[in-house]
Amino acid sequence: MWLAAAMVAAGLALSGLSLIELEPRDQQIAQATPPLHSTPGAETRPSAPSEPDTTGVRPTTPAPEPARPDGEAQKAGATPALPPAPAEKTAPPIQQK
Description:
- This protein is mainly α.
- The chain is 27% helix and 0% strand.
């Protein structure tokens, strides 16, 4: 019983010493960024540029055209904007065993 009490007392003593070691000693607080200062002459300049006038409509000059014109337009001379798609590759059929 005496041995168990001595071990508990030693554990408590070690815990107390550890807490004393963990106590912060010299706390110094550093400022991450310098304080903001106004630009010279900022009072006379506007704070932000004015917003551009937008209508929310996409401009259509020149008018958008499809990447693949229909058949009649191709006959009239319209050229496709994209090359033709490659033909799909086919393999011989799988033989049943």
